[in-house]
Amino acid sequence: MNSFQEFDSSSNSDTKAINLSAGNTSNFTSPPPPSSSSSPPSSSPTTLSRYENQKRRDWNTFGQYLRNHRPPLSLSRCSGAHVLEFLRYLDEFGKTKVHTHLCPFFGHPNPPAPCPCPLRQAWGSLDALIGRLRAAFEENGGKPETNPFGARAVRLYLREVRDSQAKARGISYEKKKRKRPQHPPPLPPPNNAKIVI
Predict the structure, then answer these.
(1) Could you give the CA distance from residue 165 to residue 154 in angstroms, rounded to a whole number?
(2) Which of 38, 68, 71, 106 could form a Cys-Cys staple with 99, CB 3.0–4.6 A?
(3) What tens digit of pLDDT does each residue of 116-129 get?
(4) Closest listed residue to residue 47, CA positions, set 56, 39, 38
(5) What domain range includes position 163?
(6) pTM exceeding the 0.90 threshold for the entire prediction
């Protein structure tokens, strides 16, 4: 065991399907954690936020992916290349239509008819997923400088996915500019005011 927590290898490794719903950003389904009959139920259960629950599910799902990998991978040997492999695997479960260059609807945000273009993971879902996995890695004892989710290759891949999906759908992903609080312009001095020099 390294300085950070490896995934529990005793979990069920038969689950290979991952469900990402389009309406819910990166909604992974993973097997529930094994229940322990030795621990008594607590009277005040700790409720986690939606983000924390999602991060835990994502972390468990990535661990499941590593265990199902051939040959199985330990987290300590995981690199940015393995993260990219995982993201490409997730595309199998995507629900976002991404038009190819040959499609007549390439660049149209609302195509008028169906087409055979592939379904992919939406860029926003992948971006949010990587953010959660990056945080989970460090929360489980990983060092920021060895975090495979923060690798340059992963950042470049996400940028490429964002740009290609923007072109294919005719939608630009511009960073939203922060709205500055609007202050009313200063009132000019009244006309009858004398200016002393």
Answers:
(1) 16
(2) 106
(3) 888 899 999 999 99
(4) 56
(5) 49-169
(6) no
